[in-house]
Amino acid sequence: MKTINIGILGLGVVGTGVARLLKEKKQLLTERTGAVLNLKTIADIDTTRDRGIDLGATVLTTDAQGIINDPDIHIIVETIGGETLARDFILKALDQKKHVVTANKALLASHGNDLVKKAKGSGVDLAFEASCGGCMPIIKSLRESLVANHIRSLAAILNGTCNYILTKISRDGSAFEDALKDAQALGYAEAEPSLDIDGFDTAHKLAILNSLAHGMEINLKDIHVEGIRHITPVDIEFAREFGYAIKLLAIGKIHDRHVEARVHPTMIPLSNPLAHVDGSMNAVVIDADATGRTMLYGHGAGMMPTASAVLSDIVDIARNIISGTQRRVPILGVQDDHIRPIPILAMSELHTRYYLRFEAQDHPGVLAKISGILGENNISIESVHQKGLKSNGKVPVVMITHTAKEAWVQKALGEILKTDSVVGDPMVIRIEETARE
What we know:
It is a single chain. By secondary structure, the chain is an alpha/beta fold. The protein folds into three domains: about 5-135 and about 305-335, 3-Layer(aba) Sandwich (Rossmann fold), CATH 3.40.50.720; about 140-300, Dihydrodipicolinate Reductase, domain 2 (2-Layer Sandwich); about 350-430, Alpha-Beta Plaits (2-Layer Sandwich). It has 14 helices and 17 strands. The protein has helices spanning about 15-25, 25-35, 65-70, 85-95, 105-120, 140-145, 160-170, 175-185, 195, 200-215, 235-240, 305-325, 365-375, 405-415; strands at about 5-10, 35-45, 60, 75-80, 100, 125, 150-155, 225, 245-255, 260-270, 280-290, 290-300, 350-360, 380-385, 395-400, 405, 425-430. Strands 7, 8, 9, 10, 11, 12, 13, 14, 15, 16 and 17 form an eleven-stranded mixed beta sheet that branches. Strands 3-2-1-4-5-6 form a six-stranded parallel beta sheet, with helices on both faces.
């Protein structure tokens, strides 16, 4: 039976999980792969810390380059993270004609096009199932299971930290800062949480998924990104009263000549299954022309869920090696000569519905003035709610609009802020039309 040697770069949380599965599930993996998956060497800057696993004959070294240069190693697993050292190691591994497995979504979102070209030139595979959605098989679903479909749209909860915080605010009425501290105490949020709570982690994943869904080059820079720092219990309570939940969504939609790609807090109706994805869980709904809507749900992070996704890539590559094939499935889901740049719609051109909350002065004519400015900018109001106790001469006014253009809304808000009708910046949350049942 053939032995396929594996080297891991980085023995942190994910690397340790991968090593554990390779060791503890060795017999199961042999039965399902038809080859022995041998963890030959691991490189990490810390070779003394106890990771709680028996490495047996596996060599633990600080010499990452030695693993890359080892002619007996077939597959390199990169679990270092970041965009500098990891990129250098992956490029060197691809130059050495090693197959590479990575969970590094930030690297793929920023440099994925170059890495794909390098892998093609070397005739090897670059696999990244664990980069989006943890254990959810979203990459395989887009590349293989839905291969006969045109993907019309996807809407996804892809960051467990944000989803936990929003769930905490919704269930307990916690302030954002308190919910964040709770998430940090439980290990869901980093000490410096900006990457998660400001939406950038979700944007990295959307850039990758859009490429797979639509056969386009990976494009991170044009994705509109907003985080959840400004979401309050007041807005979540208003949303609930109107029949909505607020989630940080990654939204991708294909149109005739462009793709929508945006990450922001979104109101979705309670009839949508994504509205009930709570805690640190992730989910994605894919709308395709042949299948209709398909939903995947699972742990988006964590040692063993992520390691499970990494192992799925390792086994796929091992099966290719056994059968004498390489690059059987295109890295980005379509043949390389069909990958094309598709422009991302400018956010100012977006058409959707809006939730607007103003802290309005409790003066006669204020509501008429706000409504008038909205109307002058082609924004039709579906409903108006003026409720809650007056505080310091202000009262909350909430409006739900019909479909309007983003540019119109931003222009109107700018004009409203110049009046003496409102205090402070208004709250703006988009309502996802396609989520309505």
